[in-house]
Amino acid sequence: MHLISVPVRRPADLEPALRALTRERPDALFVHPVPVLLPDTAKVAEFALKHRLPSVAGNRGFADAGLLMSYGVNLFDLGRKAAQYVDKILKGAWPGDIPVEQPTTFELVINLKTAKALGLTVPPSLLQRADQVIE
Predict the structure, then answer these.
(1) Nearest-CA neighbor of 45 among 22, 64, 32, 27?
(2) What is the pTM of this model?
(3) Which CATH architecture has domain 11-134?
């Protein structure tokens, strides 16, 4: 496997990154869930589908937008955890005394519409493990 890294650090980097991927012609695409890409999830998904790239991201919004699948932290769970931290602080806890916790809830989302468009068959065993299947 040959890894091609195409950094996108600001919104203006997206178009040059997509052009670089078009030149490099990868066999698949992993989209790191950086906040700068969140407004352009649909554009990234359209690119992946147009170039017939099986794609995975670490944020379910990308699978909702059309990437093949996502596996990552449940953002709603993180929001609830943040609210619990705020509650403790507002009740007088010192922030430095509150233990840092790792995320514990992850979710796998598979987009079968995209799989069909790419001509891929998702194994039933993977579909059974999915938290959500988009049909």
Answers:
(1) 64
(2) 0.85
(3) 3-Layer(aba) Sandwich (3.40)
**pLDDT tens for the 135 residues of the chain, in order:** 678 899 999 999 999 999 999 999 999 999 988 889 989 999 999 999 999 999 999 989 999 999 999 999 988 898 999 999 999 999 999 999 999 888 888 999 999 999 999 999 999 999 999 999 999
Task: Give me the sign of the Cα torsion angle 86, 91, 96, 102.
Answer: negative
What does the angle CA 93 – CA 96 – CA 98 come to, to the nearest 5 degrees?
Answer: 60
Residues 105-129 as b or e (16 or more Cβ within 10 Å = b) = eebbbbbbebbeebeeebeeeeeee
Q: How far is CA 62 from CA 7, 29, 89, 100, in A?
A: 17, 12, 33, 27
Domain ranges of the chain: 11-134
**Over pLDDT 90: what percentage of the chain?**
82
Task: Give the other-Cβ count within 10 Å of 20's Cβ.
Answer: 15
Beta strands in the chain (DSSP E): 29-31, 55-57, 69-73, 106-111, 132-134
Residue 17 identity: A
